[in-house]
Each structure stands twice: as C-alpha cells, then as structure tokens.
Write a structure and sequence with these properties.
Structural class: alpha+beta
Largest sheet: 5 strands, antiparallel
Mean pLDDT: 95
Low-confidence stretches: none
CATH topology: Thiol Ester Dehydrase, Chain A
Order of helices and strands: EEHHHHEEEEEH
Number of helices: 5
Strand order of the largest sheet: 2-5-6-7-4
Number of strands: 7
C-alpha cells in the first residue's frame, strides 16, 4: 500500500528510497525500437567493448524513464499532476543485468498562484547494486494540495 503525498505532506528534506529492479536486455531492445535509437553502443557488445565498455550500454534516457517509474511506484508517491521539467546527468554506464534503485529528496517547494497545487523540486539519484550513482538530477513536479485532493 502506498502513502499518497500531497503538497502539504512533502516538506523540504523529505527523502526516501524506491524499490529496485533489474535492467534487462528486453528493456534495452524495446526502448531502442520505441525511440528509434539503434546506436551500436546499445545494440552491439563488440562495438561497445571497442569503446572501452564491458559490453553494450543501456540508453541514458532509458535510465531516466526507469527512475521516473521507480519514483512513481515507490511506497511513498506524490499526488502528481504533471512533470514540468528535468535536469539530468549521466554519470556512469547502465548495463543489462544491473539492479537499480532510486533515491528521492524534496529540496524546494512552492504553492502555485491558484493555491490548489504546489511545485516540488525533487533531487533524484539512480543507483546500481554497488550503490554507485549512475544518473542524477532534478525534476520539477506539480502536485495536488490537500484542498484540491479533497474536492476530487
């Protein structure tokens, strides 16, 4: 069961970890097909090794969307309305077989002019099984306030 976090429930400093998942070959192939990004680094182990990687590397944007999915199915999740922006960094390669999890922290917040919604600045980290940061960044997330949530 998840605890739905409205604006009032998300103070600056709130932090939690998401569950985890294993990145599979299927994730990479499906993302390549969906995005059209068939770059050899993602599809060809030999090519990736020729560039100094241990094998093919998952798409950076796949890591971002997996992080968003982990956030959205965490035990604590936000009463989200819309994602407004992302600033994202790719720190280390994401490989098939990596077990990943996320860390989410509220670093800033403000009510909208209407007052029935708020905007949270979230700091996010995508980590592997060795607890190394693979990707990180910020997300501006519009969430419902309790006043808006009670009227729905």
């Amino acid at each position: 069961m998840s605890d739905l976090l409205f604006y009032e429930d998300a103070p600056i400093g709130l932090s939690f970890e998401t569950g985890g998942m294993v990145v599979t070959e299927s994730h990479i192939v499906q993302f390549a097909g969906l995005s059209g990004d068939l770059f050899d680094l993602h599809m060809d182990d030999e090519f990736a090794r020729s560039l100094g990687f241990s094998g093919r590397v998952a798409h950076g944007l796949l890591g971002l969307i997996l992080m968003d999915g982990l956030k959205n199915r965490a035990a604590q999740r936000f009463a989200a309305v819309a994602s407004l922006s992302w600033q994202w960094n790719f720190r280390r390669p994401l490989y098939p077989g990596d077990r990943i999890h996320g860390r989410v922290s509220v670093t800033d917040r403000r009510l909208t002019k209407r007052g029935d919604r708020g905007i949270l600045t979230l700091s996010l980290e995508l980590r592997n099984g060795k607890d190394q940061i693979l990707q990180d960044g910020t997300n501006l997330l519009m969430v419902r306030s309790r006043a808006a949530g009670d009227s729905q």
